[in-house]
Amino acid sequence: MTLLRDADLADAFDHAARGYDRLVGLNAGYHADLRRSARRLRLPDGGAGLRLLDLGCGTGASTAALLRAAPLARITAVDASAGMLERAAAKRWPRGVTFVHAPAERLAAAGVTGPFDAVFAGYLFRNVADPDAVLAAVHGLLRPGGRLAVHEYSLSGSAAHRAVWSAVCRTVILPAGRRTGDAGLYRHLHRSVLDFDTAPVFAARLARAGFTGTRVLPVPGWQTGIVHTFLGRRGGRIASGGAA
Ligand SMILES: C[S@@+](CC[C@H](N)C(=O)[O-])C[C@H]1O[C@@H](n2cnc3c(N)ncnc32)[C@H](O)[C@@H]1O
To answer: What's the 56 CA to ligand 1 centre distance in angstroms?
Structure first.
């Protein structure tokens, strides 16, 4: 199948927005894993004085994870889907959290400018047409020493993990997508994970984009080898021993 991109993908997420939180709720560990990746940013002092960007915030699950890791930070949460963003904005947030409707490829035009102390991207990069261009833009938005955490379906490269992913899609994700009328989006989810960079390849992509101290960390449970946290910095090094 052809993957969904840009406006077609935003339309598909608009349609899926209503059932999105219920669907991800079926995935034990979805929220805990996002929180784990956000914690891995190791943001100091509860985020006091920090400006953070949640890129591809969806219905706000990744924003909530970031807020848990840095409750005192100011957070700008951005998404290309108006429907997903509407769901996010309807939730209760502290005053420091703001939502912006924009594609990751056109942040400046929407008034989203740096510098940010950290950027978090939960399940975004597999969806963008040109991940190198978005990584370059993110690098440019970070202050020197600023941190990036990408939480993504990125397979380990082992045939076993690829087979587990396809089995979960066949038995759980694709049937659920058919039930909610979002079959196209969930076929995209299945295929986009199979086609996306493996974890070592995405880590090399980060390094090519100029990120330093890059690290790849697993998540526990059935998603081991399927979902990873990728960490990097604009200049400098991630402190060692930081895995949560
Ligand atoms: C799988 S959802 C994840 C949402 C949220 N980060 C989470 O962890 O639950 C991916 C989100 O990325 C958004 N997205 C995809 N491509 C995008 C792009 N180019 N620019 C901004 N958002 C994008 C989609 O609209 C969708 O809300």
So the answer is: 4
For a mutational test of ligand 1's pocket, the pick from 5, 13, 106, i.e. the residue with the most ligand atoms closer than 8 A to its C-beta, is: 13
Q: Choose from 15-29, 140-154, 230-244 the range with maximum mean pLDDT.
A: 140-154
Domain boundaries, given as residue ranges, for the chain: 6-234
The neighbouring-strand residues paired with 76 are 53, 98
The DSSP annotation for 9-41 comes to HHHHHHHHHHHHHHHHHTSTTHHHHHHHHHHTT
Taking domain 6-234, whether its CATH number is 3.40.50.150 is answered by yes
Instruction: Say if residue 200 is preceded by a cis peptide, omega within 30 of 0.
Output: no
Structure token pair of residue 74: 């100011």
For residue 244, is pLDDT > 70? Answer: no
- Position 217 confidence tier, pLDDT thresholds 50, 70, 90: very high
Centre of ligand 1 from the C-alpha of residue 152, in Å: 11
The model's pTM is 0.96
